[in-house]
Amino acid sequence: GAVVSQHPSRVICKSGTSVKIECRSLDFQATTMFWYRQFPKQSLMLMATSNEGSKATYEQGVEKDKFLINHASLTLSTLTVTSAHPEDSSFYICTPRKQGVRETQYFGPGTRLLVL
Amino acid sequence: KQEVTQIPAALSVPEGENLVLNCSFTDSAIYNLQWFRQDPGKGLTSLLLIQSSQREQTSGRLNASLDKSSGRSTLYIAASQPGDSATYLCAVIMDSSYKLIFGSGTRLLVRP
Asked: Of the candidates A115, A94, A87, A74, which has an alpha carbon nearest to the alpha carbon of residue A34?
């Protein structure tokens, strides 16, 4: 199966700081990247969809100025949580979509963010 | 608005039992449906993908069925093992955008 990496896997930060999460598709090119988050004991919710070289599309209720997504290349997308607050503590998962192929989603291993 | 529900929320069974996990969705116009496994603190592993035109998919001890008209899918696990303990999520894809709408999951514990 395809390999997707996320870095860091876990981060603890103080309230008000910004945190950048990287997602890389290691063996395929991803024209589309989905970012999901999962609060404790809840299911995954889609935050935004990004296409390489263009602006991300955010789901209702997700602040685009708070969650900055950059999809500058076909193998790398970043999610920056700006001025993080405790309520942003969550599990963030990226899902790159393989270019031109209708198939199973490949999920990153996730990044657990804890904001103190 | 599509809503995905999974029942039961949690399940504890002795090793060796066959079990069924249920998933229902409110809008039957789905593109496809997928079952995932999530281990604690980890990402997702795809188990089975059922296209909207299919009725079921099988992989090893797993069998997933889909009844689009009634908005239901089941995941059947045969001869459960302690290693099957995890949270099982079902998700529907509504269109070619491939956005996933997840259910809340079923936490499975298989006791040795």
From this structure: A94
CA-wise closest residue to A88 among A38, A24, A27: A38
**Token pair 């089941």 is at which residue?**
B74
Question: Per the CB < 8 Å rule, is A109 touching B42?
Answer: yes
Mean pLDDT (whole number) for A96-113:
78
Measured between alpha carbons, how far is B43 from A104 in angstroms, rounded to an integer?
15
Tokens standing for residue A20: 């950048």
B97 neighbourhood in chain A, CB within 8 Å: 49
**How many of the other CB atoms lie within 10 Å of CB of A102?**
13
- Render pLDDT for A8-49 as a digit per residue (tens, 0 to 9): 999 999 999 999 999 999 888 888 899 999 998 888 999 999
The Cα–Cα gap between A52 and A21 comes to: 17
**Percent of chain B whose predicted confidence (pLDDT) is above 70:** 100
Q: Are B90 and B4 in contact (CB under 8 A)?
A: yes
Farthest-apart Cα atoms in chain B, separation: 42
Residues composing chain A: 116
Whether B44 sits inside 8 A of A107 (CB atoms) is yes
Q: Which residues in chain B are contacts of A45 at CB distance < 8 A?
A: 102
